[in-house]
Amino acid sequence: MSRQGSRAATTGDDIVADAHSPLAQFEIKTLMPLDLGGVDASFTNASLIMAVVVGLVTIFIVAGMSKATIIPGRFQGMVEFFYEFIANLLKENTGPKGKAFFPLVFSLFMFILGCNLIGLFGAITVTSHIIVTFALAFMVITVVTVVGFVKHGTHYFSYFAPAGAPMWLMPLMIPLEIISYLIRPISLSVRLFANMVAGHVMLGVLGTFVVGLGGLFFALGAIPLAAIPLIFALEVLVALLQAYVFAILTCIYLNDAIHLAH
Amino acid sequence: MPQFDPAIFSPLLVWLILTFVALYLLMSKLALPKVAAIIDQRAERIEGNLAKAEQLRAEAANVLLAYEKAMADAKAAAQAELAKAGAEIAAETAKREVEFAKRLAEQTSVAEGRIKAAKTEALAQVKAIATDLAAGIAGKLTGAGVDQAAAGAAVDAIVKERA
């Protein structure tokens, strides 16, 4: 397999091979091949965008707070808005014990939000890659599980046997609870992935229509063109909402592990 | 979909870990403490101002209390002064009344004495005149000289008889 150019195009998928396909935007392009002890660690367009998001988020906060005053200006107020937003989300859902996880939840929210939004402006949407969203969700569930066992030891297993449920229901409840616990990383990652893919495919398809219909008859292209700003606005909302959903679910799972409550 | 090509998983995961760990460290060590510092500072400032306001309020309440006390004291002092002045005036009035009554009584008794003396004198003169008249009339009627002493005795007898 060639490390140069489009990776996906080399997999033999015919749809992807077409550069104008709505799926072409999800292709990973290697910018600099890199091998770390047999592991493919090539610097790709996705790596670049993730690094850019990290840089932008850091600059946003550091620059916003560079001339921090007691009475905030607009820029500082915006930074503080994000800070307070996530801080309140965490406090409302996990209580004071969840404070240690603030940097994690904040980083997750800003990373996902940054990736979602930057994807709407032509860059590759990293969060439309299932492996990325799954890795993030898996990390969240791992942290939650570790926190649960560290805080409660083997008592954490009692999480799978809901208190108050009748004994005869236990053979049914316990497997269900275990399945629901194991399904969390999947639902968490698929939700974000599917939302991002759907929106971007729709925008891509509309864009193709503008060109296609406009090529047939100029005025026809105006119909999908008019829809694009509306879909775009909707996608901005979805980008915000999905980052929020990911953050709030992380908080809820953390609360379950910290307080051993359903 | 290109997302399901397993060949891209490895570079995506490697760079996701690298960038996300970098973001986590930048946030937890650099960016978030800056925001927390200013928010804490603001909270402290607000708390400080609230405490100061509470202290000022307590001070104002104390001042009001002191003012009310001073007012009450002044009122009490004024009332005491008024009562004292009233008592003094009453005492002076009583003294003057007593003095006036005494003087009045003295003057009355002097006047009464004078009236009595005048009356006695007048009565004596009436007797002398009556004696003279009686002696004169009797002298004229009888043509003979009448003894003054006898006339006096006669007048006395008549006066006594009429009294």
Task: Characterise this structure.
The complex is a heterodimer of chains A (262) and B (163). Chain A has 262 residues and is mostly helical. Chain A has one domain. Helices cover 65% and strands 3% of the residues of chain A. Chain A has helices at 14-17, 45-64, 74-94, 102-119, 130-152, 170-216, 222-259, and strands at 30-32, 35-36, 39-40, 43-44. Chain A has a two-stranded antiparallel ribbon. The longest helix of chain A is centred in the last third of the chain and has 47 residues, at 170-216. Chain A is globular, with a radius of gyration of 22 Å. Chain A starts with 13 loop residues before the first helix and ends with a helix. Mean pLDDT of chain A is 87; it is low at 1-17. By secondary structure, chain B is mainly α. Chain B starts with 8 loop residues before the first helix and ends with a helix. Chain B is built from two helices and no strands. Chain B has one domain (7-162). Chain B has helices at residues 9-142, 148-162. At the A-B interface, strand 3, strand 4, helix 2, helix 3 and helix 4 of A face helix 1 of B.
Number of strands of chain B: 0
The averaged pLDDT of chain A comes out at 87
- DSSP, total strands of chain A: 4
Taken from the alpha-carbon principal axes, the silhouette of chain B is rod-shaped
Beta-strand content of chain B: under 5%
Largest interface: A-B, 56 and 37 residues
For the biggest β-sheet of chain A, the strand order reads 1-4
- The percentage helix of chain B is over 70%
Oligomer: heterodimer
Main β-sheet description of chain A: 2 strands, antiparallel
- In whole angstroms, the N-to-C terminal distance of chain B is 166 Å
C-alpha Rg of chain A, in Å? 22 Å
